[in-house]
Amino acid sequence: LNSVVFLTLPVDSIYDSRSERVCVFGTGDLGRSLGLRLLQAGYGVVFGSRRPHSSSSLLPHGAQVLGHAAAAQSAHLIFIAVQREHYDFLVPLANQLKGKVLVDLSNNLKKNQYPEANAEYLQSLVPGAEVVKGFNTLSAWSLQNGPSDANRQVYICGESVEAKQAVIAVAIKLGFSALDRGFLSVARELEDFPLQLFPQWRLPLRIAIGLSAAFFFYLLIRDIIYAYVTQSKDISFRIMVSLANKVCPIVSLIMLSLCYLPGVLASFLQLYRGTKYRRFPDWLDRWMLCRKQLGLLALGFAFLHVLYTLIIPIRYYVWFKATERTVSMIRENRTTQFDMTTAWRGDSYLSLGILGFGLYVLLGITSLPSVSNALSWREFSFIQSKLGHLTLLLCTAHTYLYGWNRFLSSSTYKWYTPPGYMLCLVLPSVVLLLKLLLITPCVDRTITRIRQGWERGADQRNPKDNLSLRHEL
Amino acid sequence: LNSVVFLTLPVDSIYDSRSERVCVFGTGDLGRSLGLRLLQAGYGVVFGSRRPHSSSSLLPHGAQVLGHAAAAQSAHLIFIAVQREHYDFLVPLANQLKGKVLVDLSNNLKKNQYPEANAEYLQSLVPGAEVVKGFNTLSAWSLQNGPSDANRQVYICGESVEAKQAVIAVAIKLGFSALDRGFLSVARELEDFPLQLFPQWRLPLRIAIGLSAAFFFYLLIRDIIYAYVTQSKDISFRIMVSLANKVCPIVSLIMLSLCYLPGVLASFLQLYRGTKYRRFPDWLDRWMLCRKQLGLLALGFAFLHVLYTLIIPIRYYVWFKATERTVSMIRENRTTQFDMTTAWRGDSYLSLGILGFGLYVLLGITSLPSVSNALSWREFSFIQSKLGHLTLLLCTAHTYLYGWNRFLSSSTYKWYTPPGYMLCLVLPSVVLLLKLLLITPCVDRTITRIRQGWERGADQRNPKDNLSLRHEL
Amino acid sequence: LNSVVFLTLPVDSIYDSRSERVCVFGTGDLGRSLGLRLLQAGYGVVFGSRRPHSSSSLLPHGAQVLGHAAAAQSAHLIFIAVQREHYDFLVPLANQLKGKVLVDLSNNLKKNQYPEANAEYLQSLVPGAEVVKGFNTLSAWSLQNGPSDANRQVYICGESVEAKQAVIAVAIKLGFSALDRGFLSVARELEDFPLQLFPQWRLPLRIAIGLSAAFFFYLLIRDIIYAYVTQSKDISFRIMVSLANKVCPIVSLIMLSLCYLPGVLASFLQLYRGTKYRRFPDWLDRWMLCRKQLGLLALGFAFLHVLYTLIIPIRYYVWFKATERTVSMIRENRTTQFDMTTAWRGDSYLSLGILGFGLYVLLGITSLPSVSNALSWREFSFIQSKLGHLTLLLCTAHTYLYGWNRFLSSSTYKWYTPPGYMLCLVLPSVVLLLKLLLITPCVDRTITRIRQGWERGADQRNPKDNLSLRHEL
């Protein structure tokens, strides 16, 4: 029976005792860090080394050092803390490694460095062993000092379930939570993971930086340089706040509309094709996949815009102008009339901005992993789609009210260029118009049918007795 | 041994090979989406269809199509992507389905549409098979394109553990994390899940909207209409900011006290009954269960209040009034004395508000799932109860200071109605008074004993050797 | 074969039926609450009691009450809801308890109350049984009403894997998610968990409070008392806002630098020792472990600082001063010149503050558990280290610009004491300087090599074929 239990229970039960032994190949930094952690977790640790005697001095106290062959025989689980280039030393050990679980911890220095994943390469070298990829996504810090805030999760993959369970058991004892990601074919993905630095953020960040730079220089010319050339007035100090407070909202609004444009385009594409079963072009797919990042960056800029706006009255320049105006009013004995329209416009403008920002923040919060995981997809799509478009609407209206009637006065168009807020209104207006089209009853009905699997000129092919999905885009 | 392994290992090991076959009944949208995902995850997919030949054309490339009977025999796991109304076609297949795992993916269009859950109905039709409910909480998006931000979690339930493990194994390979929710009796719950749209938020939202509307009209009459009728002054523009900035704090404060009132009431009820073992009335239970939502909505209104307050100095109206005052001061050669009391009052009023809002935000952050999960219940109750009541105290004091001595001057009571901030002070004051009563030593002692299981006139029944819980409400 | 299945499947399959029976020892509050939950989850519940008849009246309806011996025999799983002091009543039941799973739910009133953990003590009393520690971290609320926002996670530990699986199965059916923490030796840790109240926050909070108090009194003397003594002017009202708005930024900046100082010190220590394999002194370790808390508190103070700054223009005092100035300007017929330098300085000062705060918030968000878990350690360290130091840089520059040339004018040094912002600049400047040293190519190279396991005068010991870790501190 035991042998059955051996095969069938999560492996930690096999050696369910303090004296469980684990083997580590490689006495480098990773090997030593891991060995230390294993000892602390109550394992017996045996190091496999080419020169047991020379290296022993360095190793954590309490660990045993043997030659590779002897070490391999001493344990069922062997951590391979050796660089891929040197895996070949394992080939002669084929016999000792037969049936053993080899954990491949290795990472590469850059992506696609080798034709196949290190773990797959290892498996091909030692076919008799059961290779499991894992732990490689952990930081040095986590492996030496246990789970940190950054890494509690350990990802593993491999062909054999028992082998994976054995590794999961060790991970749990080391204080990590392990997730089985499937077959060894996933190894490549796991090996690329630690190399990535915000891959999904690349494109959105580039867009944000590009837009910021473009509008910064555009406004620099229109406002500061224009003033200098035409009235030879130096108002360069405005760069720090006034200009920043123009760039932020502009970029924010454009990014927000960029975040809702792909969904609209996709709908029109489906409408045009009359089916949902043809893949979207790659550029559209990529675009759709970075909507979240686009939205969060937009929120960031909106946040800065709010701060920049709120500090206006604290600015020396503003205080100075205000005083100047009052003083001149008195000296020249002028009086001003309270203008109801300005009051209405100004207040609505501010109010719309506040409500828009409120919704903005709500969208941001619901895109936190722990929050969105707690939502049913109907709830999630309600917030991200319905409230999202409402946010876009509010922010666009906010900007239109800001422009107000200045759209008409020619003085607005210095050097025949439109001000920034006009430029940034184009995209959101388009998105909102298209969305408006999509929610008109007739169009919406077709879209919904298409999303439920209906295909133009293919109705009879989709028997009524089959289950369909509600739409969500 | 294989047969043992078959029964005993997480099922993915059974077909531990690329060629594992899964069967899908129903060639509708859901069936096709799922089939595509399964193929991508390396499964062999066999569709069961009434007209294998007609439907095949539509199905994802690489999938096989057979008649239902043949398809059923080809795989151990069968996804039922067919509407409940048509389940009966499975009855004649009873033999082929014996011992198979049937995954019920179906959802209903509205709650309690049928006497029993679809999955239970399916089980009753095919008693020989092992029915597992699952995947139905996923969105179209997730099922077609894999886990999205919104859905990574898959919930399943069923009677047989092996069957559930088989389904979990598939879920993991598709990139989801599966959670066993228990027996098939849970199916109804799982089937209702996708239909829900913020069920716990309904009541709090209604309260919030109701309060907002009520106070909006109340203040509309007291401020704008009153001014128009008595002094025929049109100050309607104030609706956008001034009025909004009165409604928000009022609603926020009332909601916050509504969030702490039920706890206080519950304590008094226990005190009155002298036991904790009698259930609370339903209305109180429901109320207690939506405290979190009440609090978060209150935070939302507080957030808007802060923004509305901070933009005050940017407003045209405010700027105009300020200038006017200064100008008139000079023209009429008046001078004003610096009033120390006003300075003290104004600054403390602002400072209390800021501190209150700071705590408010802290409460909001700790109610994020990932944060509250990391807290021990003692820590959680410390923040939500102790700090929560402190927040209420600060915000109430903030409002009292705002009112200051205007409580006395009759001019405050236009048309004999009290201003909004007075009305909104009633509830928080009551809550704080009751709470004050509860924390007086003598009362607190009794409450604690009751919460530890003591019952008035029943001491001898609760032997000292039994474990009691610390209190938390 | 069944017996195999019995041993090898997650134990819930053993009693896979509604009538599964679980036993609860102890009819106290905890026992009854738990019993109720178990009944609701569809278990058959048998209470073990010293006086079955007397206590039955109190117990949840549907539960059975027997003597301890009889109860023990009726179920495989027994919850021990009895205080440790009374465990000895189990000794005579040794035979009935042989092979049973005993779940120890007990908590202590203070840490290290007993030489060994309650669960270990229990195991020593009943060696024949399989003791599992668990559920003790749950709140009364959660145990009675099911998973609350605060507690969804159940931690368990024990020697036997089957026993643990049995308990996990129950936990899942009760709606909790259970995490195996390893051997019974972890029990002590689990028993201490519910007693803890923000242990990692203690030190940072003390520092924050200490600093706040110190600077409050320092500034109280320098500003308010100084003004009173030298010019007998009462400006005590400034305490509420002006003073608070000086204390907050000062404490925030110091705390932020305290959060990055230990990392820098650690690097220099490693540089000095020429190895990473000697442990850091305890004080440094403790310091490093509370960096996150230090940072979050610093963010809190920065948040208050922002609010205090933004309300400045709403203050009565500020309005009064502004008017006074304007009035006097006119009466004395003075005119002011617009000072470009002041404009530049003021705006840059504000702009730096805003950007700094923006990054501050970003750091805060990424330290949310659910967010940081989604990051690879490379991403996490990029944000927390790179962006973190950038934040420190921005905030320090912000403060320097605030001070500007006042560093030179003697009038700044009332009573020969430097103003607060000068004092708070010392630490961040030091940290930034040291960090600057560390990132100079030559030093950085050495550090990196050390972090990769290289040791001064020990190169040959670290064979090239061993795997090294990228650095992260």
UniProtKB/TrEMBL annotation, chains A, B, C:
Keyword DNA damage included in the entry's annotation: no
Membrane topology, as annotated: Multi-pass membrane protein
Gene Ontology cellular component list: endosome membrane; plasma membrane
Chief location bin: membrane
Transmembrane segments: 207-229, 249-272, 293-318, 349-375, 420-443
GO molecular function: cupric reductase (NADH) activity; ferric-chelate reductase (NADPH) activity; metal ion binding
Segments forming domain Pyrroline-5-carboxylate reductase catalytic N-terminal: 21-107
Keywords: Copper, Endosome, FAD, Flavoprotein, Ion transport, Iron, Iron transport, Membrane, Metal-binding, Oxidoreductase, Transmembrane, Transmembrane helix, Transport
Coiled coil: none
One Pfam family from the record: F420_oxidored
Domain Ferric oxidoreductase residues, every copy: 250-394
GO biological process: copper ion import; iron ion transport
Cofactor: heme b; FAD
UniProt catalytic activity: 2 Cu(+) + NADP(+) + H(+) = 2 Cu(2+) + NADPH; 2 Fe(2+) + NADP(+) + H(+) = 2 Fe(3+) + NADPH
Keyword Isomerase annotated: no
Record localization: Endosome membrane
Family (UniProt): Belongs to the STEAP family.
Stored PANTHER family: DUDULIN-RELATED (PTHR14239), METALLOREDUCTASE STEAP4 (PTHR14239:SF5)
Name the record gives this protein: STEAP family member 4
The organism of origin for this protein: Oncorhynchus tshawytscha (Chinook salmon)
Gene it is expressed from: LOC112222820
